[in-house]
Amino acid sequence: MLNVNCTSKLQAALNLISAWADDWQLPVFISKCSILNIGSKAVSVSYHIRGNILPHVKSCRDLGVMLTSELSPSVHISEITVKGHQRANAILRCFETRDRDLLVRAFVTYIRTLMEYNSVVWSPDLKRDIDAIEKVQRRFIKRLAGLKKLFYGQTLKLVNYPSLELRRLHTDLLWCYQIVFGVVDLMCDDFFKLCPWHCNTWPRVGLQAVQTQ
Predict the structure, then answer these.
(1) What is the pLDDT of residues 1-25, one digit of tens each?
(2) What's the rounded Cα separation, in Å, for the pair 168 and 106?
(3) Contact 44/6 with Cβ under 8 angstroms?
(4) Cα–Cα distance between 194 and 177 in angstroms, integer?
(5) 3-state secondary structure of 183
(6) Rounded to 10 degrees, what is the CA torsion of 25, 31, 32, 36?
(7) Nearest Cα to 182, choosing from 211, 203, 213?
(8) Helical axes 74-94 vs 127-142, angle rounded to 10°
(9) What pLDDT is recorded for position 200?
(10) Distance between CA 64 and CA 76 in Å, rounded?
(11) Contact predicate 206/181, CB 8 Å
């Protein structure tokens, strides 16, 4: 909930950033700046940089991830799936070889990295979003030589690659482990509430797992 004190502090921070950038001859690109309100309640507060009022937007890009006021990943997923299909079509058109292993490696290098970038931030929970992401890999693999008439599960076994949904789950579990055991600089209490029994036994299990690896 914003109040006058919060808005004045934010405007003061913008003024300091702008002044610092000008001192170092790195002026802020104002046309790329905007205000994104998080939540359903509309906020009418205006902010400015060097007298230029910043526009209010419903979505914006931050470190390669599209953010919306509802914090829904659907906009980001729609964008990366379109790019994924475009890249898949380009690979199948531009590569003369029909070697299955080579084309799959091209998919992993140029497409799968796009589909999984920062997935812990936007990992979907809606079935339509999950299916939209998976369709990029499913469609590409089924267009490979000898795989057109097979089911998706069969094609994954033949190319020896997991589904994108399963890979996201592995990534989420890895981050969960790192947060719980302090591998990353994040507070576990901000994400999880551990019961006393888990707190006493998990560190030993985690240490044994690391030593086994």
Answers:
(1) 556 678 889 899 999 999 999 999 9
(2) 20
(3) no
(4) 13
(5) coil
(6) 130
(7) 203
(8) 0
(9) 53
(10) 9
(11) yes
